[in-house]
Protein 1
Amino acid sequence: MKTRMKHVLSFILIAFCCAVSVTCANNKNRQNKNTGSLVVSPSQDNTSEAKKLAEGLRRKGITDKRVLAAIGNIPRHKFIDESIREYAYLDRPLPIDKGQTISQPYTVAFQTELLQLKPGEKVLEIGTGSGYQAAVLCEMEAEVYSIERFQDLHLKAKETLNKLGYHPNLFFGDGYEGLPEHAPFDKILITAAPEKIPEKLKQQLKVGGWMVVPVGGRMGQKMTVIKRVSKDKFHESEHGDFIFVPMQEGTEK
Ligand code: SAH
């Protein structure tokens, strides 16, 4: 099947079922952000479409100005295949390689808002995918670590992010293991759905830190926030229904 056809078909398939909100719907990482010399400046590159997307998310209930500013600055079309470029600024999940998806922008914004990220905080993302969510975290001036279990996606995301001037710490590996050598993290964000809260990741949170994770099976998940209130005590809260691709064990090419 031709690539365009394949992507359009998967778009139709996933439009209704992946990384979707059911309810609604560091600077360290980005070099030369202000000089503009090496970075593709979004102002020459679809800023108005990205800004309109952010404005739409504000109308749908996203209030965190830093999250909206980040989304308004990122050229989302750079994270997807050219053949589906026309859908890049719609509030829809879209297919990427390996049967995975770039989440719906509302879902990205909703999860990021729940993180309440402060500049300089150390955040671990599980599921780099296209790299779009990692770009949002970089725009918010966090110290970003992200793990992807597909090597091809990991390499492609690295290339995309670096071309745009974002330099998060990207790892190819199984997110269930986390990154013990870089722990503890202020925040952990999981962008695929585990059936149960991954125990090893809970242990990699700072006391006072929290994890945002869609928990549940293939039919749907509850967006869950797990706060580490002391060494052994965690507090859980739920924030609506979503559908994500499953979080799977192990790695693949
Ligand atoms: N954050 C991504 C969305 C990706 S979809 C973006 O902005 O584009 C979820 C991703 O999680 C997929 O790429 C999938 O391969 C990855 N994933 C699933 N299980 C994983 C695991 N155990 N470790 C790391 N990545 C995983």
Protein 2
Amino acid sequence: NKGARRPARVPEQAIAKVGVIGAGFMGAGIAYVAAKAGIEVVLVDQTQAAADKGKAHSASLMEGLVKKGRAKPDEAEALLARIQATPDYAALADADLVIEAVFEDRDVKAEVSRRVAEVLKPQAIFASNTSTLPITSLAEAFPDASRFVGIHFFSPVDKMMLTEVILGKETGDQALAVALDFVRAIKKTPIVVNDTRGFFANRCVLRYMTEAYDMLVEGVPPVMIENAAKFAGMPVGPLALNDETAVDLSQKIMKATIRDMGEGSIDPRHFALVNEMVDEEGRLGRKAGKGFYDYPAKPAKKHI
Ligand code: NAI
């Protein structure tokens, strides 16, 4: 693994401005952690409203910290002032690093790469937050693959410390150094991984969830699986974790795996289980209020 260490000959990179494209679930979180570290952020989405919604995530996290006395109101204000929310790609022109977190769709990402390449300054680095698409193949849509790297965050971005830096075949030393320096600047722990399916963490998580699926189809009650996992010291049981990451995402990944690697690549009992949950029962996970578990909406707080 050529990237086990930071390339020593590349001087430390000060990253003053970061672009984040896609102000959804992940992009909004990435914008927050960067702004929290004092970095200027340009947060781009398709519309002003979508970009603003992403920025509102930072406002709400800071509001929570202020309420708990862990941040001052002027710190919250300063953090928000560092985030420019816009639908205009031209605002990325002076960014040192741009990270895309748009839909997990090869064509959408390729289109975004082309648009970014038109405005990015020559030495800047472009990164993808993809969780499943190979970095080497995504880099093909960007004119200079040596400046393309994977920076893979985990949700919730403000809480999860691990960040994977993924090397494509052509990723250069400068891109690796910028990615590592950025991850350290936002006070997360980077690990450098090769461009393999699931990278590192998702390979482990997948095995964790797959074993739970096995137990479930063997008839073990979900609550026993979860309790056993908790007693074994895992912070979240495998089925509750799958509810967090979304059951329809599992279905999507299984479909893509079957398409790419053939019928035998996924246990048909697991595929049948997610198909039933998603297509017939709308059990998409926590976001839908039900997945392996039910998540009844909390009653609205009364203002006295
Ligand atoms: P999301 O659907 O919440 O957000 C995607 C955002 O991209 C949307 O706001 C959408 O309007 C915007 N977008 C789409 N096309 C665009 C374009 N051409 N220009 C600008 N903005 C555009 O998706 P989510 O969950 O945030 O995922 C984003 C990426 O992060 C995906 O590649 C996903 O695989 C990856 N990822 C997701 C994780 C998760 O737990 N959801 C974890 C780690 C990575």
